[in-house]
Amino acid sequence: MSILIFSDLFPKYHPRVAADFFAALTRHGVNFELIGDTKDIWARDYLPLVCADGQVCSYVYNPDYLRGDEKYRTILPPMPRHLPLVMDGGNFERIGRKAIMTDKVFTDNPGLSRDEIKRLICEKCAIGELIIVPRAPYDPYGHTDTIVRFTSKIA
Asked: Which residues pair with 99 in a beta bridge?
């Protein structure tokens, strides 16, 4: 069963918008939940990845752009399937068994080789191909979700 997950800050900071949003989801039979104790409304960045086999995978959420400003970093406990890499959910776009990320994943994990990082991601996320693209020079976050989106099945 698919479910949408929201930060508990969404209805706190935007109560009218959240009420309308949740009412629309309910009318359309879409399941959703709020997760508590979040520090940032942008849940995509810290929530688990949905893998090609339908399972979910956590990762180490410790983005460079929040270091020194911990009040915005939500830390979730590792799940049974856990990727021991520093990364952001916003830097992972997947369709089928293909995924795309920026090369920021390499700079965020300096103790591992590029091949090891790619192998771990492919293994844990059940993907067959990982496409690495350069980080956009003007993007302080290094996310793929600011520059690309898969729109149809290509894998």
From this structure: 94, 130
DSSP, collapsed to helix, strand or coil, labels residue 10 as helix
Instruction: Return d(Cα 34, Cα 59) in angstroms, integer.
Output: 20
3-state secondary structure 27-78: HCCCCEEEECCCCCCCHHHCCCEECCCCCEEEEECCCHHHCCCHHHCCCCCC
Asked if 41 and 34 touch (Cβ cutoff 8 Å), the reply is: no
The pLDDT-based confidence of 97 (bands split at 50, 70, 90) is: very high
Cβ 99 vs Cβ 121: under 8 Å:
yes
Structural contact between residues 93 and 129, judged by C-beta atoms closer than 8 angstroms: no
Structure tokens at 10: 């969404």
What gap in Å lies between CA 106 and CA 65, rounded to an integer?
15
pTM, two decimal places: 0.88
The pLDDT of residue 154:
57
pLDDT category of residue 155 using cuts at 50, 70 and 90: low
Q: Tell me the C-alpha distance between 89 and 60, whole Å.
A: 10
Taking only the tens place, the pLDDT of each residue in 102-134 is 999 999 999 999 999 999 999 999 999 999 999
